[in-house]
Prior knowledge:
This protein has about 70 residues and is an all-alpha fold. The chain has helices spanning about 5-10, 15-30, 35-50, 50-65. Helix 3 runs antiparallel to helix 4 (about 50-65). The chain starts with a helix and ends with a helix.
Amino acid sequence: xxxxxxxxxxxxxxxxxxxxxxxxxxxxxxxxxxxxxxxxxxxxxxxxxxxxxxxxxxxxxxxxxxxxxxx
Length: 71
């Protein structure tokens, strides 16, 4: 089964079950951290970012990678 097929199935679930999936994904995301080399790569991209929106996205990605996602 592909990710697209899974997403399609999720869209067809009742709202309560979609909520359970959302909570599951948020929990997984909060536990994810990225490696030091990945953080370094993001920091280097941030230093060279010319677009403020891209710089903001990179800052958020660095924070999530370092701290995880707040619950």
